[in-house]
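Your task:
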Amino acid sequence: MSEIIAFTKNNADFLLKEALKGREKIELSLNLGKNKQVVDIVQGFVIPKQGEKHKFALEKLQKLKENTIYTIENQKVLAVELFSKESNLYYKLRPTKDWPTLMLSSVPMHRFITSTPKLDTESKINSIKPIKGKVLDTCCGLGYTAIMLAKNGAESVTCFEKDPFVLDICKYNPYSLELFTNKKITLINENVFQGIKKLESETFDRIIHDPPTISFAKELYSVEFYKELHRVLKKDGKLYHYAPNPKKTKGAEFWKTMIKILKNAGFKNVDYYKKSSGIVAKK
């Protein structure tokens, strides 16, 4: 997994341009900007530091698409995308100004126009600082929240991801790899709606609930689920709940309804924060 290669059309165009100049060694990033490496150009092939089995032909870089991330498998250039008949969804890793986002069909899993996935994750975590003790991340996605929590004060992070295809995409994202290697993180491949019922009461000091939009997971916005969040949160613990606004253009603000349901589930000090586009509540 540490040998993963991930790049964009911009990286490919740079490689082609430098190779046309006759250069035999070219420095660039092949992991979406995490670091750079020097690749060798030999007889029309790019040979990265990962070795011969990861080499690929320069000619395969000529017709790549914008807003797409590519990887190398068996010397083939492949887009990091897939379609699942099980979920009837198209999954695609999409580049942004910093970390990639995941597209579920046409729906992005992060704000990346008015913000970025990195800044978006930071704002959610900052909403419930200080991060301490045991933390629950209800909807893992690409793992950014769990990884950042583990690096910023959490003793341990338990995270749920029900979709195995999302986890497959994670394995091609350089910024998701710590999800599988950080010993503080326990990843559970299960729907949190069922999985949370197996957790002991008053287990977590902090909870981040960042579910997909309500059209994908209506049950994760229900009073039944909110009561489970309240049950597993320790006294005086904090909850952050991302609050999408699907009806904002129609004059309705969904977060107001969410606040009422959270209060009905037993939460107190329930407030909406526009900067992080979320609700913070306490037990």
